[in-house]
Amino acid sequence: MAFTSVSAQKPTVYKINELLNRINNDSDTTYVVNFWATWCKPCVAELPEFEKLHLDAKDNNRKTKVLLVSMDFVEELDKKLKDFLAKNKYTCEVVLLDEINGNDFINKISEKWSGAIPATLIVKPKPQGNEFIEGKVTVECLLAAILAK
């Protein structure tokens, strides 16, 4: 059995339209998309909650995909972000959003978003609506949002 360590993973770099195409794909999967950065203390503090959600979804065969979207600078990918991920051994998928001007992408994520992080977008299968949460969350809060009809 092949084993890929988290430290060997290199996060994919996305532009906003690539990210939106990924999460708005009309599948039967719920996407939990967390916007965070290594320099944001509240963001880093809540990352274990997303890891718990990711493991819970796997254990319960729930069609939920956790996607951690780093807002770090693309120039810091190899040094700062990869080192952070290797140190913390997160198994959730991580991507880096390569956008500098928030005015170009914030409202595409949610009109409720002020641009502050941490922030989480929950994209549910249609016809259910999306949910947006600005600020720190817990795994219980995330599960409640995911399971609500």
Describe, in plain words, how this protein is organized in 3D.
It is a single chain. The longest helix has 19 residues, at 41-59. This protein has 149 residues and is an alpha/beta fold. It has a single domain, classed as Glutaredoxin, CATH 3.40.30.10. Residues 1-7 have low confidence and may be disordered. It is built from five helices and six strands. A hairpin with a 7-residue loop joins strand 5 (119-123) and strand 6. It has helices at residues 16-23, 41-59, 77-88, 106-109, 139-147; strands spanning 12-14, 30-36, 64-70, 93-97, 119-123, 131-134. Strands 1-4-3-2-5-6 form a six-stranded mixed beta sheet.
Explain briefly what this protein structure is.
It is built from 5 helices and 6 strands, in the order βαβαβαβαββα. It is an alpha/beta fold.
Strand content: 15-25%
Radius of gyration: 15 Å
Largest sheet: 6 strands, mixed
- Work out the number of β strands: 6
CATH topology tier name: Glutaredoxin
- Average residue-wise pLDDT: 88
Q: What's the domain count?
A: 1
- What's the level 1 CATH class? Alpha Beta
Map the helices and strands.
Elements: E1 12-14, H1 16-23, E2 30-36, H2 41-59, E3 64-70, H3 77-88, E4 93-97, H4 106-109, E5 119-123, E6 131-134, H5 139-147
Parallel strand pairs: 1-4, 2-3, 3-4
Antiparallel strand pairs: 2-5, 5-6
